[in-house]
Amino acid sequence: MPVRPAALLVVLGLTATAAQAQTLCEGRADALGTARVLTVDAATTPRVGRKSFPQTLPLAPHEVVLTFDDGPWPGTTPYVLDALKNECVKATFFLVGRNAVAYPQLARREIAEGHTVGSHTYSHPLLDRMSFSAAVAEIDRGFAGVDSALYGQPTQVPRTPFFRFPGFASTPALLEHLEKSGIVVFGADLWASDWNPQSPDEELKLVLQRLGALRGGGIVLLHDTRAQTAAMLPEFLRALKRGGYSVVHVVPAQDPTAQSSPR
């Protein structure tokens, strides 16, 4: 569950476009930055992340894709976005539909600052414990909630056909359904276990150890609803820079920004 601090952030004046954010990062040799954009298409890459599947994204050694689940959440997501913006980094957010509907200004800020936004169901149930029809309805409602928050109304086909199962609780039937629907299912190659209570320093040490043990890079799973993750993220991004890692931004194949680098 999201951390609920005593006072929630009020997000004001967040109207910068992705192009403006890119301009702010030009000449920032000190920033981690985003090295390249990778298009991902369900036709060729229907599911990725070796924690759940045999294959992952075609990443070079020391390339990472940063992903965040469960948001947006007003007590923590703004800090995550601030940290990413300060380091000129683009990430992918898998939103819970009801949170996107409740806090559309945060979902829109993610898009405005150039991040990719996918879906993580509407209410975060474990889909393998539901009937197939109920699970599909939950997935569809999640996409509709995210697109309504971002664009004012749902679309017949999700604007960003990226999906992550809560708890990675997939089934063969649901995976087949999503592949036929043209939706890429994201697993992960490593995570920070930030659903467990831990200090920011403990989480930083854990995720860096796991990244080092991976002998290269991969899809990193974090949660922008977790206070310790928001606090840990600035130093994590600096550690990636020191360690010679590069950030890859994933976008759907039909995304018109896919041909240009945010660098």
Structure keywords:
alpha/beta; 263 residues; disordered N terminus; 16% strand; seven-stranded parallel sheet; 35% helix; 10 strands; three-stranded parallel sheet; globular; 8 helices; TIM Barrel; disordered C terminus
Topology, please?
Elements: H1 18-25, E1 36-40, E2 47-48, E3 63-69, H2 77-86, E4 92-95, H3 97-102, H4 104-112, E5 116-119, H5 132-151, E6 162-163, H6 172-180, E7 184-186, E8 190-191, H7 200-213, E9 218-223, H8 227-242, E10 246-252
Parallel strand pairs: 1-10, 2-7, 3-4, 3-9, 3-10, 4-5, 6-7, 8-9
Helix pairs in contact: 2-8, 4-5, 7-8
Given the structure, what is the number of helices? 8
What helical percentage do the residues reach? 25-40%
Distance N to C terminus: 35 Å
**Cα Rg:** 17 Å
Number of separate structural domains: 1
Outline: globular
Bin the strand percentage: 15-25%
Number of strands: 10
CATH level 1 class label: Alpha Beta
CATH architectural name: Alpha-Beta Barrel
CATH superfamily: Glycoside hydrolase/deacetylase
